[in-house]
From TrEMBL:
MF (Gene Ontology): methyltransferase activity
Matches recorded under NCBIfam families: SCO2525_fam
Record GO biological process: methylation
Taxonomic source organism: Streptomyces chartreusis
Keyword Transferase: yes
Name of the protein: Methyltransferase
Amino acid sequence: MRWAAFDPIAYVDHNYRDLQAEDAEILHMLRDHFGDHFRKQGSGPVSGIDVGAGANLYPALSMMPWCDEITLFERSPANVGYLRSQIQSYGPNWDQFWSALCKHEAYNSLGADPRERFSKIVSVEQGDLFDLARYERQWSMGTMFFVAESMTTLHQEFRLGVERFMRALAPGAPFAAAFMEHSKGYHAGEHFFPACDVGESEVRASLETFAGDFKVQRLESAAEVRDGYSGMIVAYGWRSNSDSIIPID
């Protein structure tokens, strides 16, 4: 797979130039899930990770109020370059995503322009999702958006990708993950990239060993960001204290 050929500028322009209805719905879930968790836990700054960050900054933005460090873990050299270019002062298109998060007081308290905080706590690490095996229980909150199903056509690799993400989280860590439903693959610039055909049942099965209480929810938004998939799925919950807990619906 020629991940070096991934075109982050074209990808951002197509997907994140404007705030799509799907992303607005996801941001609502993120801000409520993370906000409620830390309101109840009352725990002070933690470490966060966004696995397979790609050219998407809003998962990192969603973790920012509670983190003193956030790792953007990404394989593609082109995406790593894009992410590093955004650290000191990210592009103005991301302001609309931050504004959506600021409907929750935890985000709003950081001010209208959180770029200085972003530059201080966010770092980029180049690495393969499967290399996370050496980082078990490392991070206290985490996100993984459109990654495990967007790198392979094999269900075994999809499940292993989800496992690697979940095992990188400490027990009790809040998490959120998003998946393209029944994706047929996607373009980034001129190049086509593969996808694994998954639905709600596959997402749930991939998480149930590693998550305690969690929800799997298909987005209500009907508009398609791109062709070749039937919808989007978001899963959110908490890393279990063991790897044998069955989820609570």
